[in-house]
Amino acid sequence: MSGDSQTTMNFAGRSNTRTIVQVGMLGAVAMVLMFFEVPLWFAPPFYKMDLSELPVLIGCFAMGPAAGVMIELVKILLHLVVQGTTTAGVGDLANFLIGCSFVVPAGMIYKKIRTKKGAVIGMIVGTVTMTVLGCVLNAFVLLPFYATAFEMPMDVLIQMGTAVNAWIQDVFSFVILAVAPFNILKGMIVSALTFLLYKHIRPILRRQ
Question: How far apart are CA 94 and CA 104, in angstroms?
């Protein structure tokens, strides 16, 4: 084996090891951020916002969409280990899918257009995708599952929405007036923080 080939293999090995370490580190930070939840005035109390997608999106921009998916997965698995689940994993799976629907489109666009404009376009597309998928999953999976799991009629969940917004009268208005704004606001906040922090964190993640 030539010296150049050996050098290339050693570099690839170090690069893969570094990526694995960074994925684990960012996943752990994301998991910790899941515990800092803030209730929102326009949504029922069981909807609380956290910033756990921030390190996921930063990692996605720095290392690519596949790394973003792995960071999201590490986040969810660590949270299951530390906190457990009250939804038989359904809520955690939904959290994973909704998180990926945000960071993957953003990461794919930024990978092709590596400019500030590309990042902004990616984050807008990611926010829209997350909002649409979040509404669909809540309407057809999460809300019916929670109603069944906690043995309460769907009307009770809807009434919790009505208590904070009188316009919420059914599942459709629930997802449009509570779930959609929730995801849009989360996407905007995480995107703004990523835009501000990424240029400072990227050199650390890309350091040889």
Answer: 15
Can you tell me the distance from the alpha carbon of 165 to that of 160, in angstroms, rounded to the nearest whole number?
9
Residue 71's contacts (CB-CB under 8 Å, 6 or more residues apart) are 23, 26, 27, 30, 55, 56, 59, 60
Question: Beta-strand (E) ranges in the chain?
Answer: 38-39, 48-49
Give the rounded distance of the alpha carbon of 34 from its chain centre. 10
Nearest to 51 by CA among 39, 35, 66: 35
Phi/psi-derived region of residue 37, left when phi > 0, alpha when psi is between -120 and 50, beta in every other case:
beta
3-state secondary structure of 42: coil
What are the tens digits of pLDDT across the range 20-72?
889 999 999 999 999 999 999 999 888 899 999 999 999 999 999 999 999 99
Rounded to 5 degrees, φ, ψ at 38 are -125, 125
φ and ψ of 41, to 5 deg: -70, -20
Read off the tokens for 183. Answer: 């995801």
Length of the chain equals 208
179: part of which helix (H) or strand (E)? none
Give the helix/strand (H/E) hosting 96. Answer: helix 90-112
Name the DSSP letter for residue 125.
H
What count of Cα atoms within 13 Å lies in the side-chain half-sphere of residue 3? 0
